[in-house]
Amino acid sequence: MKKYLVFILIFSPLFLFASEKENFNLSYELINFSSSTVSQGEILVIKVEGDLKKITLQSKSLKIKAQDLNFFKLKDKFFAILGISVKSKPGKYELNFYFKNGKVIKKSFEIVEKEFPVTELKVTPDLEKKGIIPSTIVKTIFYVNLAIKEVIENGSRNIFFDDKFFYPLEKIEVVGAFGNIRKNNNVGARHLGVDLKADIGTNIYAINNGIVRMVEDLPIYGKTVIIDHGGRIFSFYLHLEEFYVKEGQFIERGKIIGKTGNTGYSLAPHLHFSVNVNGVSVDPLKFIETINKEINF
Asked: Measured between alpha carbons, how far is residue 266 from residues 76, 167, 177, 199, 226 in Å?
């Protein structure tokens, strides 16, 4: 059964008059998806092309299953990034684009199920001495995420970036995959980021322009930096050794924000890197790959 997601575009009175004279017709070519299929934990880029000076959005944010689909303008095109949760139900989804002249454009995409392996939620004797055991890890993550949720909900809808997204480390070597379910007996937690191999003291770079929203030593996550890139896009950097930024600071793409470490719940030095889009955690490496390809900076 298809699910229906709706957003509305309206024309200005000036455009209504001009469209009759110019015989301007809306068609499928004005609305493009990055793909007709998207896997759980990835993103769908929606692009609206055409003479956007003659089109206005009735609402810049659109409610889609508890997440806002935020449109932003970049290089004379409107874009929206739809984050697909690891828990999204597989199947076909249809979006209906309603226009004031009565025309409706329908486009559909399919969410494809992705297999996420189950791995062991490990703890070392040193972590146990600090009181970090599987049950406390899961419980603490829940409460820490409540504080982070408040930061995300107050993010900027205006974008701060106008260039491609950057990788947080010079060398990318994944040692902990996105989406894995880590379990220890009856206790489990979803890994909503990637762990990147890095020696202590390795430079960490901001993946794009943004405002630093959090610089804090958190339980389990260790020393953490969260950057708001605008458009409801956030990047997270966990287990740091040193901070080089402050809350409220504007940071430019590629600038050093800190050094990698082994703080919090960490079995070895590494960087935990996450991206959140409209309140949904997505595979950060696939996010960078897809958005750089589709937006064509």
From this structure: 44, 21, 15, 13, 18
